[in-house]
Amino acid sequence: MLEEKFERLRNFLLAYFNQDMESPEGALQEYIEENSEGAISTTLAQINTFLHEDLTEQVKEQFIEDNCDLYFPALELTPVEWLKQVQAELKSTLG
């Protein structure tokens, strides 16, 4: 159900935050460089919707962990905290 509802977010996480990335920051920068403002805006809208969805924190974190290859303890962030950082970075890109 969540995979379908948040397919764009899932695809974003799977495509950029996988075992082939050099770093989470580099992967995000790569996404920003490769996509139009419209695509970034659409992804940002999906992140906003996901973060405001009436789900438990645990369900949100599991969805994020299931769809990307990040080791969150090493980042010293929870998956939701990390996604909020991504959200802020994408917002700042759009001005």
Please give a structural write-up:
The protein is an all-alpha fold and 95 residues long. The protein has one domain (2-94). Helices cover 75% and strands 0% of the residues. The mean pLDDT is 96.
Oligomer: single chain
Percentage of residues in DSSP E strands: under 5%
Stretches where pLDDT falls below 50 for ≥5 residues?
A: none
Structural classification: mainly alpha
Helix content: over 70%
Compute the number of helices: 7
H and E string: HHHHHHH
Overall number of structural domains? 1
What's the mean pLDDT score?
A: 96
- Number-wise, the strands total 0
Distance between the termini: 33 Å
Choose one word for the global shape.
globular
Computed over alpha carbons, the radius of gyration is 12 Å
